């Protein structure tokens, strides 16, 4: 991700409707876990470090990222946060160090040829019985200037994500698409991009005439989070694919 996009993330991550809504989706799946030690693999600008610690009651949440700019933003949020500069494919930790590993839209940011290595690394540093929560952008045919600007290598279908996790030795506990209700809105935006009528990342504040839509979109994601918190529900499509997997 470019430095400019990291700056946008830093400014928006706490309050922007998409970030708030997707955190609600995540919490519905991992809020019952009580991990002692957590690794946020690809922590970006660091907002999730404090959020995971507060919501899960973890005693420590470690963050790693390959971008020094991202780590600088993370340190500005919390100077005492445990951080390290490292690749997700080469984690600087002993085996079985963590109870939970999280990865938010990171797998899509690394070359596909090292994704398997990263997943094996996540499994290596997890303790037996530990959990891995992963989110990736979904639907390859939705690839657009949004992905190009964020330097996304690939978007994944849910079956592809599940297959990758299983091949890395994980047992998939739950999986689903997410950002389901707003899929038609995103589809229209992608069509406009293809027609050259729009461009750039979607993670931007709405222009003033459309600001009234932000609480509507946040409400939609929160309703989706409430429905997904039901352990038996799985959406058939969406803008993201998510999975909770366990190391056995």
* CATH architecture classification: 3-Layer(aba) Sandwich
Task: Look at the structure and give the mean pLDDT.
Answer: 90
| Uncertain spans | none
Number of helices: 9
What about the largest sheet? 7 strands, mixed
Percent helix: 25-40%
Question: How many structural domains are formed by the residues?
Answer: 1
| CATH C-level class | Alpha Beta
Beginning-to-end CA distance, first to last residue: 33 Å
- Give the overall shape, derived from the CA principal axes: globular
Instruction: Please state roughly what percent of the residues sit in beta strands, choosing from under 5%, 5-15%, 15-25%, 25-35%, 35-45% or over 45%.
Output: 15-25%
Category from helices, strands and their pairing? alpha/beta
The strand count comes to: 7
Q: Write the CATH fold name.
A: Rossmann fold
């Amino acid at each position: 991700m470019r430095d400019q996009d990291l700056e946008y993330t830093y400014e928006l991550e706490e309050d922007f409707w998409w970030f708030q809504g997707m955190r609600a989706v995540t919490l519905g799946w991992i809020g019952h876990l009580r991990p002692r030690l957590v690794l946020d693999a690809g922590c970006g600008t660091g907002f999730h470090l404090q959020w995971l610690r507060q919501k899960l009651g973890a005693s420590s949440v470690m963050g790693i990222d390959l971008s020094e700019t991202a780590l600088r933003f993370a340190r500005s949020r919390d100077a005492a946060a445990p951080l390290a500069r490292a690749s997700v494919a080469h984690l600087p930790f002993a085996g079985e160090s963590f109870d939970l590993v999280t990865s938010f839209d990171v797998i899509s940011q690394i070359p596909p040829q090292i994704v398997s290595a990263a997943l094996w690394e996540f499994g290596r540093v997890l303790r037996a019985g530990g959990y891995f929560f992963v989110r990736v952008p979904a639907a390859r045919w939705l690839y657009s200037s949004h992905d190009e600007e964020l330097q996304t290598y690939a978007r994944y279908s849910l079956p592809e994500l599940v297959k990758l996790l299983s091949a890395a030795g994980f047992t998939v506990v739950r999986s689903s698409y997410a950002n389901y209700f707003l899929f038609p809105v995103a589809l229209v935006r992608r069509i406009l991009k293809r027609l050259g009528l729009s461009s750039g990342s979607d993670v931007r504040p709405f222009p003033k005439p459309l600001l009234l839509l932000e609480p509507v979109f946040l409400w939609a994601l929160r309703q989706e989070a409430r429905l997904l918190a039901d352990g038996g529900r799985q959406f058939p499509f969406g803008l993201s694919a998510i999975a909770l997997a366990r190391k056995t």
